[in-house]
Amino acid sequence: MNERKVYTREFKLHAASMVLDDNCPVPEVCASLDIGPTALRRWVDQVRKEREGQPVRGTKAITDDQRQIQELKAKIKRMEMEAEILKKATALLMSDPDRFR
């Protein structure tokens, strides 16, 4: 059975940067890092889009900026949910204040 390799965000960024910034050919990067061309091309495309400020939906961000944006969006979503819960709890308490004494 062939196990799927898992690569870190840093590794993906390094590999994509070799192609985008150092102008290394994809086959050369694949050979030097022992990765497949399909994965490398996907990472290169994702890093290029993220650098342009276009998040790639359904994937974990590779670049630091996009990773931070994803984390902040998740935090905002959590805070909005918490605020909604507090609003509902407050409304419940205000509707019948004697009920909870």
Compose a concise summary of this entry.
The protein is mainly alpha-helical. The chain has four helices and no strands.
Supply database-style keywords.
about 100 residues; Arc Repressor Mutant, subunit A; mainly alpha; about 0% strand
Low-confidence stretches: none
Compute the number of structural domains.
1
Q: In the CATH hierarchy, what is the class?
A: Mainly Alpha
Q: What's the CATH architecture name?
A: Orthogonal Bundle
pLDDT averaged over residues: 92
Helix content: 55-70%
Q: What is the H-and-E element order?
A: HHHH
**CATH level-3 fold name:** Arc Repressor Mutant, subunit A
Number of H- or I-type helical stretches: 4
Alpha-carbon Rg, integer = 22 Å
Beta content: under 5%
- Secondary structure class reads mainly alpha
- Outline: elongated
Let me know the largest β-sheet.
none
